[in-house]
Amino acid sequence: MKxxxxxxxxxxxxxxxxxxxxxxxxxxxxxxxxxxxxxxGSHYENFTVSLPLLNRDLRQDLANIYxxxxxxxxxxxxxxxxxxxxxxxxxxxxxLDAVFSGSPPPHPVFWALSETVQRRSLSxxxxxxxxSAFRQDQRQFRYRSFAELVDYSRRSAAPVGRLVLACFxxxxxxxxxxxxxxxxxxxxxxxxxxxPLDLKLGRIYLPEEDRDKFKVDEKQIxxxxxxxxxxxxxxxxxxxxxxxxxxxxxxxxxxxxxxSLAVELFNAGGWKVLDKLxxxxxxxxxxxxxxxxxxxxxxxxxxxxxxxAGISSPPTS
Length: 317
Description:
Distance between the termini: 51 Å
Strand order of the largest sheet: 1-2
CATH topology of the largest domain: Farnesyl Diphosphate Synthase
Largest sheet: 2 strands, parallel
Structural class: mainly alpha
CATH superfamily of the largest domain: Farnesyl Diphosphate Synthase
Number of domains: 2
Order of helices and strands: EHEHHHHHHHHHHHHHH
């Protein structure tokens, strides 16, 4: 399928953006960049790319990285047999290798990404780590320990934080440490909020060692039974996640504006979701606990005020 500029401004934009064919191609680097901007802008969770104070190249680079992450995530989450998904992920990795060998394919994601890789001198390691995590999703559906879950999250979430730091040229060793903690904590927030969604994919991210400790078996989770044991389990996971967020929050005070604001907003958003879960008596089955439009406006206002005041500590709750 050839993707031309007029395709991105027509009524068929949505269909084009949701096309996940690895054979998708564009005719120029400009088309590839436009595709990535449109795809990044169409997804609600993508706050950083939308920051209005970023220069054009930086906004484009963040969009290009986001599109790579979005694509590999969507490829891995399709309702297809694991061998089919693993085969597509292998093809995806070959296209990634072509980017770093200097011969990017005409696929919009990789053509655009090649410019970012060159401009920001990015390493291939974070991109490969993401692929490694999504391959693991096809083989592993339960986690015995919290350490196993953290290892998975170091490859499924932390690479994104490191790539963003590299784009802003703020990838010091300490910044990367705090960014890893923040990224992993936010991944954990998603695990606890999305238990029903993950069940539909056959996955349970609540560590077995914790489930055993609080006497919550797999059948209870599948049946959506929220009793005192389950509430204690969820409270334990949420408070441990808050501990990780508290330490990672130090990152925002070490960054320049507006990246410091973006980190503040991501942290505050994750904290708010945990607040909602706790306020719902630790029941993730009532509904999907996400941020409302009002939440985002209020957190954005508070985030700006906190950044202007030089406050980088998390809430006290």
